[in-house]
Design brief:
By secondary structure, this protein is of the alpha+beta class. About 30% of the residues lie in helices and about 25% in strands. It has three domains: about 240 residues, FAD/NAD(P)-binding domain, CATH 3.50.50.60; about 90 residues, Alpha-Beta Plaits, CATH 3.30.70.2450; about 100 residues, Glutaredoxin, CATH 3.40.30. The longest helix has 24 residues. The radius of gyration is 23 Å and the shape is globular.
């Protein structure tokens, strides 16, 4: 059997990538060892970056019935002022990760993606022309590319020989769902908080009458890591962190969690790529693990589609590692900083006082808010004097696998629907696409918040590569670099 791309892992990142490829017309097959969606998936919230990425692809609306806005963010439970950020970006949302997986799987299938469950990968071989994956002991699937989205213990990463330098420290974490009436919960048991004894607690609604509980303590370990987790053990950790115990609660499921931190040595090895937790793993402060994985998928998907479609400029696939690897490293750093701020008070309290003072400064507050919400990603796509928008994302809907030359220069003429443009307006010269109409749309738009320029060129992942302003670069060069030669 053969396909264009094999994705190993049907978690949210693998399925998001499958949707990217399917929408771009790429034949993709997902191999997943699980038989079905795990309703015990840990994630309960998606940050602003994931909301924006789902919105950009038209995937958000169907999830709203299960979600509610979460207009709050913190840096190690030091709360941030989001007003400046929310003027330009959507808020985070509470929505179970398993709901996202089910929705993305349904969409991927509608787009023609093949999903094979109960498929455990056991082998991988590649040459200059293709990759062959072996699964379930003897079945094989050959593809042009393979993407490992199979989690921290990635089989694809191991088989590809990619290093994963792991930092594992003493940690005691519990995660699970309890059934409890809201009226029986104490104020300390609702929401997220830092404990003065060191560590964090979070209690979030999972569904009516069900609460997702997450405890994290650094520098300590469970007495018996292999023993089943009981409600008494959970109550003991909750009491240490909050000073309270659940009065009336029944455990649905409880597990211990670990806290590895690592960034893969490479996100690409020949025809094999890594994304999501297979590429980088860290404590899930602020939903950054999911947002980092979604950014991986949006960055890689269109580049694979361009290569398979025959119009990718030289070196395009190499930019995936070049852009995403430094971001993965920096997220590891910011999460480790948050862990240090959540450590025992004798070491953390001076740092918390200092960060509280820094957060009171508007620029520092905005930087940290964009950082933890995944909205501050800016790829180095211009020189030192590049316009501030170059490399950043714009909140704009895009056709899958296609870039857009956005013309804000004259506004949208009367009678022309938003997004429909046959000729040029004030910000874009006529004929600017120069034979690239098959991969870039010319779009008339009203100006976007934060985009005070007459025109901008954005890649299919929404990142700006040119603006019509000083420091914005050369349009012809940007088109050639990211969209290849005109036909």
């Amino acid at each position: 059997m053969s396909t264009a791309v094999v994705i190993v892992g049907a978690g949210p990142v693998g399925l998001a990538l499958a949707c990217e490829l399917g929408a771009a017309g790429v034949a993709a097959t997902v191999l997943e060892r699980r038989d079905g969606t795990d309703l015990r998936s840990p994630g309960m919230a998606i940050n602003g970056a994931v909301v924006e990425l789902l919105e950009q692809r038209g995937l958000l609306e169907a999830l709203r019935q299960y979600a509610m806005d979460l207009p709050a963010a913190h840096f190690s439970n030091l709360w941030l002022d989001l007003a400046p950020v929310l003027a330009e970006h959507p808020p985070s949302m509470i929505v179970p990760q398993w709901r996202i997986e089910q929705h993305l799987e349904s969409r991927a299938k509608d787009l023609g993606v093949t999903i094979v469950r109960g498929a455990e990968v056991t082998g991988l071989e590649q040459d200059d022309d293709a990759v062959t994956v072996t699964y379930n002991g003897g079945q094989t699937l050959t593809a042009s590319y393979v993407v490992g989205c199979d989690g921290p213990g990635s089989t694809v990463r191991r088989l590809a020989g990619i290093g994963f330098p792991l930092r594992d420290t003493k940690f005691y974490g519990l995660l699970g769902d309890i059934e409890a009436d809201f009226g029986d919960l104490l104020p300390e048991q609702v929401g997220a908080s830092y404990s003065p004894v060191g560590g964090t607690y979070a209690g979030t609604p999972a569904e009516p009458g069900v609460w997702r509980i997450n405890t994290a303590e650094w520098g300590v370990e469970p007495a018996d890591p292999g023993a089943p987790v009981t409600l008494d053990e959970l109550n003991d950790r909750v009491e240490r962190l909050t000073g309270t115990r659940f009065k009336k609660a029944t455990a649905r499921w409880l597990v211990r969690t670990q806290n590895p931190t690592a960034n893969a040595d490479a996100y690409r090895s020949g025809r094999v790529f890594l994304a999501g937790d297979a590429a980088h793993v860290f404590f899930p402060f602020n939903g950054q693990r999911l947002s980092a994985g979604f950014h991986d998928a949006s960055n890689l998907g269109w580049k694979l589609a361009a290569d398979l479609g025959g119009w990718a400029p030289d070196g395009l696939l190499d930019t995936y590692h070049g852009e995403r690897h430094p971001v993965g490293r920096w997220i590891c750093v910011n999460v480790q900083a948050q862990e240090a701020l959540a450590a025992p008070p004798e070491s953390a309290q001076p740092l918390r006082e200092l960060f509280a003072a820094l957060i009171a400064l508007p620029d520092a507050n905005r930087y940290l808010a964009e950082l933890v919400m995944g909205l501050g990603v800016r790829y180095p796509l211009g020189g030192a004097d590049a316009h501030p928008l170059v490399g950043r994302r714009l909140r704009v809907a895009l056709a899958p696998g296609r870039g857009a030359l956005l013309d804000f220069g004259g506004g949208v003429p009367d009678g022309v629907p938003d997004g429909a443009l046959d000729g040029a307006l004030g910000g874009v010269p006529d004929g600017a696409l120069d034979g690239r109409e098959d991969r870039v749309d010319l779009v008339a738009r009203e100006p976007l918040p934060g985009a005070d320029v007459p025109a901008a060129l954005v890649r299919p992942d929404g990142h700006v590569v040119w603006v019509a302003a000083e420091g914005g670069g050369d349009l012809a060069e940007a088109l050639g670099r990211w969209f290849g030669a005109g036909r």
